């Protein structure tokens, strides 16, 4: 407990799925966590989230569309003004709009790129400018096994997540001298709402292809976010770490 005691953390997509698990873990370890999310329903449900007994941190919900620069800059400025620092940013927000290359629309391509890639750029740029003031911070980007290996029917998603990997390596080089670490987590198939529409036979196939013979749980990804966001990973930067049970697509 208390690995994040007194820390200020921003988690995008922080009101549901992996992001919510991360928000809980960070708060239970002592952080004040801003769960940034576009879903009014998910944000409203944050009041029902229970933390472990003795937790010193808390979760604060804020609505945010990460693809809108004005909204991003306003939220980051509000948090920094309130606390004088931002210690950790977890870029967890992401969407899908799947189709094969020949069937994918320009609108679907742009929508995924705007959230998954542009959104990561916008908020990381705004937060890094604040982290530099204190010469300290950790940025954790969420990519995907799909960004590393590609996947049928996911041109836009694969492109966005591959782009996040490229930005992670670049920012680690640029920001290391400023005391800021930048790493990426590449989950495999994990039980979240994104899998709700996937047919059972496809889930079974993925389980069979995974050496560990199962899909991941949100907390298994969230625990890596916590490690990379804390001082436990103080000499780790510029890394892309898979949480995929050994899956090769």
Distance between the termini: 36 Å
Largest sheet: 7 strands, parallel
Quote the average pLDDT.
96
Q: List low-pLDDT spans.
A: none
Into which percentage range does the β-strand content fall?
15-25%
Please tally the β strands and state the result.
Answer: 7
Order of helices and strands: EHEHEHEHEHHEHHE
Strand order of the largest sheet: 3-2-1-4-5-6-7
The number of helices is 8
Would you tell me the structural class of the helices and strands?
alpha/beta
Give the C-alpha Rg: 17 Å
Topology, element by element:
Blueprint: E1 8-12, H1 17-28, E2 32-37, H2 40-44, E3 58-63, H3 69-83, E4 88-91, H4 106-134, E5 137-142, H5 145-149, H6 155-175, E6 180-187, H7 200-209, H8 218-229, E7 240-243
Parallel strand pairs: 1-2, 1-4, 2-3, 4-5, 5-6, 6-7
Helix pairs in contact: 1-8, 3-4, 4-6
Task: Give your account of this protein's structure.
This protein has 249 residues and is an alpha/beta fold. The protein contains 8 helices and 7 strands; from the N terminus they run βαβαβαβαβααβααβ. Strands 3-2-1-4-5-6-7 form a 7-stranded parallel sheet, sandwiched between helices. Helix 1 (17-28) links the parallel strand 1 (8-12) and strand 2 (32-37). Helix 1 crosses helix 8 (218-229), helix 3 packs parallel to helix 4 (106-134) and helix 4 runs parallel beside helix 6. The longest helix has 29 residues, at 106-134. The protein is globular, with a radius of gyration of 17 Å. The mean pLDDT is 96.
Concise description?
The protein has helices at residues 17-28, 40-44, 69-83, 106-134, 145-149, 155-175, 200-209, 218-229, and strands at 8-12, 32-37, 58-63, 88-91, 137-142, 180-187, 240-243.
């Amino acid at each position: 407990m208390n690995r994040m005691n007194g820390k200020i953390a921003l988690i995008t997509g922080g009101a549901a799925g992996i992001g919510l698990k991360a928000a809980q873990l960070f708060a239970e370890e002592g952080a004040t966590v801003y769960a940034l999310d576009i879903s009014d329903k998910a944000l409203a449900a944050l009041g029902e989230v229970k933390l472990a007994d003795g937790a010193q941190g808390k979760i604060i919900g804020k609505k945010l569309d990460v693809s809108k620069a004005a909204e991003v800059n306003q939220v980051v400025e509000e948090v920094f003004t309130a606390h004088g620092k931002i210690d950790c940013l977890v870029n967890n927000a992401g969407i899908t709009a799947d189709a094969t290359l020949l069937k994918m629309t320009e609108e679907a391509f742009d929508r995924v790129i705007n959230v998954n890639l542009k959104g990561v750029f916008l908020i990381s740029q705004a937060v890094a400018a604040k982290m530099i003031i204190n010469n300290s911070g950790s940025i954790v980007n969420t990519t995907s096994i799909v960004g590393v290996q590609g996947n049928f029917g996911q041109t836009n998603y694969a492109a966005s997540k591959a782009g996040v990997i490229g930005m992670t390596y670049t920012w680690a080089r640029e920001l290391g001298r400023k005391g800021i670490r930048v790493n990426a987590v590449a989950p495999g198939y994990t039980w979240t709402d994104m899998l709700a529409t996937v047919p059972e036979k496809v889930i079974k196939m993925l389980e069979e292809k995974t050496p560990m013979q199962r899909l991941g749980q949100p907390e298994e990804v969230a625990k890596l976010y916590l490690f990379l966001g804390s001082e436990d990973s103080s000499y780790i930067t510029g890394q892309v770490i898979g949480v995929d049970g050994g899956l090769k697509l």
